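User: Predict structure, ligand pyridoxal-5'-phosphate.
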Amino acid sequence: MKIYFDCAATSKIFQDILLSMERVFKEYYANPNSIYSDGQKSRQLIEESRRNIAQYLGVEPEEIIFTSGATESNNTIIRGLAESYPEKNEIIITPIEHKSVLNPVKFLAKKGYKVHFLKIDKNGIIDIDDLKRKISEKTLLVVIIHGNNETGVLQDVETVSKICRENDVFFFSDVVQTICKEKFDTEIFDFISVSGHKINAPKGIGFFYKRKDIKLTPLLFGGGQEFGLRSGTENIAFIKFLSDAIHEWDTDNDDKVKHLRFLRDLWEINLKEAIPDIHIVSEQAKRVPHISCIIFPQVDAQSMILGLSSRDMAVSSGSACSSGTPTPSHVLTAYGYSDKEALSTLRFSFCLDNTEEQIYEGIKRVKEVFESLKEFY
Ligand SMILES: Cc1ncc(COP(=O)(O)O)c(C=O)c1O
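Assistant: Predicted complex:
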């Protein structure tokens, strides 16, 4: 039995979307920027998708800007804001952001921006008092990841939003791991970023939400598509698939989220029983329903991944993007874990089509690999 527990890295495209692909590509091939009827048909599909996503989020259609995914969205927001509001040159972020947030912020730091990292506690929760101390009239932006992609920990974004509004500071949250899985009020944010492939749409499509009265300098200049914020001919079909995926997640959403949480809890309770030495990261904190981050003391996570892979099971260590490199995850070291603990950590992330049977079988395989590796250490 193949077991895929890596849905925080990427998820399978919904079956109905897969089946509709040929038709959508054939029917909506014309350039949406052309004024003849087929072009306008493509345009209508994009605008209908935009309206659907905006309605789902409770915002206005012109506040949704399609991009290739969260990396592009995060870069556009951070670099674009800096360009548009040069009078403010301080940024406050958490040390547990995704690299697609950290690296554009580091880029700005090299240009002279002052970057404040918020303190987090042992569960990965940010220190709100630290935010109150660090925010000032020089702060351009506060960036707080809503649900962390490695540990799943959720932040109190409502309180952060209030503090940002009181101080007239922009608030941006990467909601890649929480959209469709956690309920939130989009209006508390000034910006959010989303990647389609984490919610069963294809890779290479995503969007960001930008409150409409905020200025933003684009990363790409060209034909002025997406309200001038993201030039380039639109990916018509993928925009529709993203809207369809959100619609599918929204259908019986409580049941879907309940299923993920059930699998995650079943996994953790039984894994702890099978291997009592494990440590569950952020266990005591509010977490997204689909992520379980586990330290397996004294074994190397890369060897665990390979051992599990040879048993037809796919999991991650830290974030997928850095899986190839055996450097300790910046997220886990920010929590205060040692490099050794960070290098012994696996992330299991569950998908809608995972089953109870896979949970029990997965635990058996993990126990086998863990015990075979422990003998070497
Ligand atoms: C929280 C978070 N933000 C941003 C990204 C980047 O998404 P993409 O690679 O689709 O651009 C990811 C993907 O791992 C993520 O988990």
